[in-house]
């Protein structure tokens, strides 16, 4: 399978090169040259597969023989063996018409583990194949860093350095990152905010000599391997529904959305042939994507603090992939849209494109008080505790699920990760033992000033 850039200026590359490239060399995002199609009889066969078996089939379509099947199977099995639920991503029924797809049974209790466990193993595999050390460098506002560290800790051929803003991630998130004591992990606690961390990373990646000497690689959500790993659970969840429910038609997915990676995987699943009804795009008060779906204008708004910080984004880094398909895989059109975004700070689309957007997605931006109200409602009526991100998905689902339809809400984090919000409505939860245990462990991190030089000096020591 060849991968090409949304901006059309990267020659076709294979899967492994696409993974290593991360961001396209022309500034665009990599996409498969054609979307593989899954016919109905294959869907029927797949419906009986276990999670790792299904992942193997889907990954085979996208890697197309580049990784021998036995190796790919090993990678998949290693990636999902550590999940705490035998189904990896179990589906729970809440009421007639609503199901929750629990994506938080991995090591850090957030859905990012599903892709980053796989990406960690894949990097380690590539490092062995190429016989060279891979250095991963990333910035996090919380979930990604912990998940990326868990994905590669103790693995041969990989070193990872994660920057987080000092004192500005949740306590559990900080502990998940900094209680890891493996020699290949470096946590830098940076004086400054998340944007400072991101700027430093960007500058270091732009230093081409440094990047090449140390084989620097990224882990952000635009990596094509992450999108791929997220396709699996859309299929898997669909297959868990009763035949009767599926036959009634209109199985929707409601997706708590930040950088548009997760819901884009759902879009691909649909384009591959999974009979998805609506893709419901749930945002919080940072609602650039909701406004795009309702008005056809993509323009950052004012920043709001919310209870769902992992969805607090101003621009969605995977969005360009959707624009590429919206414009019929026309990379010239994408270039000119992205140019106008750079120049004017906004993208506007014509009415006929907006009609297409509205047939691809329904969207709802959840207000802070609605988010808490939904957590309370699910707790009282169904005895089910939602985290604030999932609560955005559940609220949007209630707005957009018509009578007789079924919606699967993606649960992107375990409530214990975001107790600050849950406490506000006086719900007491018991932490899972793995999270409770973090509070007694020593922390390993280096505090640094928020400058390129300071971070680079630490990296040189570490490498
Ligand atoms: C990252 C994250 C999201 C947003 O996912 P995107 O792929 O960026 O849209 C939602 N919920 C949680 C808990 C997350 O960690």
From TrEMBL:
<protein>
    <recommendedName>
        <fullName>Threonine synthase</fullName>
        <ecNumber>4.2.3.1</ecNumber>
    </recommendedName>
</protein>
<dbReference type="InterPro" id="IPR051166">
    <property type="entry name" value="Threonine_Synthase"/>
</dbReference>
<dbReference type="Pfam" id="PF14821">
    <property type="entry name" value="Thr_synth_N"/>
</dbReference>
<comment type="similarity">
    <text>Belongs to the threonine synthase family.</text>
</comment>
<dbReference type="InterPro" id="IPR037158">
    <property type="entry name" value="Thr_synth_N_sf"/>
</dbReference>
<keyword id="KW-0456">Lyase</keyword>
<feature type="domain" description="Tryptophan synthase beta chain-like PALP">
    <location>
        <begin position="101"/>
        <end position="321"/>
    </location>
</feature>
<dbReference type="InterPro" id="IPR001926">
    <property type="entry name" value="TrpB-like_PALP"/>
</dbReference>
<dbReference type="InterPro" id="IPR036052">
    <property type="entry name" value="TrpB-like_PALP_sf"/>
</dbReference>
<feature type="domain" description="Threonine synthase N-terminal">
    <location>
        <begin position="3"/>
        <end position="80"/>
    </location>
</feature>
<dbReference type="Pfam" id="PF24857">
    <property type="entry name" value="THR4_C"/>
</dbReference>
<dbReference type="InterPro" id="IPR004450">
    <property type="entry name" value="Thr_synthase-like"/>
</dbReference>
<keyword id="KW-0663">Pyridoxal phosphate</keyword>
<feature type="modified residue" description="N6-(pyridoxal phosphate)lysine">
    <location>
        <position position="112"/>
    </location>
</feature>
<dbReference type="InterPro" id="IPR029144">
    <property type="entry name" value="Thr_synth_N"/>
</dbReference>
<dbReference type="Pfam" id="PF00291">
    <property type="entry name" value="PALP"/>
</dbReference>
<dbReference type="GO" id="GO:0004795">
    <property type="term" value="F:threonine synthase activity"/>
</dbReference>
<dbReference type="GO" id="GO:0009088">
    <property type="term" value="P:threonine biosynthetic process"/>
</dbReference>
């Amino acid at each position: 399978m060849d991968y090409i850039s949304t901006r059309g200026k990267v020659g076709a590359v294979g899967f492994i090169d696409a993974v290593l490239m991360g961001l396209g060399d022309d500034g665009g995002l990599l996409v498969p040259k054609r979307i593989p199609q899954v016919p109905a009889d294959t869907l029927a066969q797949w419906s009986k597969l276990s999670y790792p078996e299904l992942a193997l089939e889907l990954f085979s379509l996208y890697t197309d023989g580049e990784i021998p099947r036995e190796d790919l199977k090993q990678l998949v099995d290693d990636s999902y063996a550590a999940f705490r639920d035998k189904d990896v991503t179990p589906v729970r029924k809440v009421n007639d018409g609503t199901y929750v797809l629990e994506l938080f049974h991995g090591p850090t209790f957030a859905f990012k583990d599903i892709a980053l466990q796989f990406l960690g193993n894949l990097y380690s595999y590539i490092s062995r194949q190429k016989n060279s050390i891979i250095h991963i460098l990333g910035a996090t506002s919380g979930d990604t860093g912990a998940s990326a560290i868990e994905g590669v800790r103790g693995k041969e051929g990989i070193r990872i350095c994660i920057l987080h803003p000092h004192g500005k991630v949740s306590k559990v998130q900080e502990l998940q990152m900094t209680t890891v004591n493996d020699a290949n992990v470096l946590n830098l606690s940076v004086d400054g905010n998340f944007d400072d961390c991101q700027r430093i990373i960007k500058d270091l990646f732009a230093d081409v000599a440094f990047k090449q000497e140390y084989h620097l690689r990224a882990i952000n959500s635009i990596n094509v391997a992450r999108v791929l790993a997220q396709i699996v659970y859309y299929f898997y969840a669909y297959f868990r529904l009763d035949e009767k429910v599926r036959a009634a038609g209109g199985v929707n997915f409601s997706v708590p959305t930040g950088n548009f990676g997760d819901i884009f995987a759902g879009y691909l699943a649909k384009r591959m042939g999974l009979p998805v009804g609506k893709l419901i795009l749930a945002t919080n008060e940072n609602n650039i994507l909701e406004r795009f779906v309702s008005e056809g204008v993509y323009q950052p708004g004012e920043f709001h603090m919310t209870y769902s910080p992992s969805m607090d984004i101003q621009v969605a880094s995977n969005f360009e992939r959707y624009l590429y398909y919206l414009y019929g895989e026309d990379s010239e059109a994408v270039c000119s849209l992205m140019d106008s975004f750079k120049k004017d700070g906004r993208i506007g689309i014509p009415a006929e494109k907006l009609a297409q957007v509205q047939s691809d997605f329904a969207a709802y931006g959840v207000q802070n008080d609605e988010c808490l109200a939904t957590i309370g409602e699910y707790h009282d009526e169904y005895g089910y505790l939602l985290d604030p991100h999932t609560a955005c998905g559940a609220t949007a689902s209630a707005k957009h699920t018509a009578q007789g339809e079924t919606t699967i809400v993606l649960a992107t984090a375990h409530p214990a990760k975001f107790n600050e919000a849950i406490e506000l409505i006086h719900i007491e939860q018991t932490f899972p033992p793995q999270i409770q245990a973090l509070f007694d462990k020593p922390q390993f991190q280096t505090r640094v000033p928020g400058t390129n030089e300071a971070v680079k000096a630490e990296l040189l020591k570490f490498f």
